Amino acid sequence: MSIFTTCEYLIKRLRELQPRERMIYHTGFLESERMRDPNIDAVAATAYTLMEHEQVVLVQERLGPPVTGYGMIDWQRGIGHGFKYMAIGCIPKAQLNLLTQLSTEII
Q1: What is the CA radius of gyration of the chain?
Q2: pLDDT bucket at 1, cuts 50 / 70 / 90
Q3: Helices (H), 5-92
Q4: Cα(27)–Cα(48) distance, rounded to whole angstroms?
Q5: Run of H or E residues at 9
């Protein structure tokens, strides 16, 4: 029985994403947090590499507006809950080409 660290588990899951399957691989402020934590950096680097190889699409969703210490929304200097960073599995090109061919033949 193997025991995965959170980092190893996230990397394994990212690599195994099926087409259209989604997963949240980080919540917070990825760019600043990955500089301080090598595990976060490893997960982010894996996600980016998979995106470069067209295996996943990377998206992010803001969790709330940035708020200053005075409770005011300030897009330049505020802090907040950050973002949800998500990976979505891509349809392999060969399968996508086949689907495109079939749909044009039907029409």
Answers
A1: 18
A2: very low
A3: 6-15, 30-36, 38-52
A4: 16
A5: helix 6-15
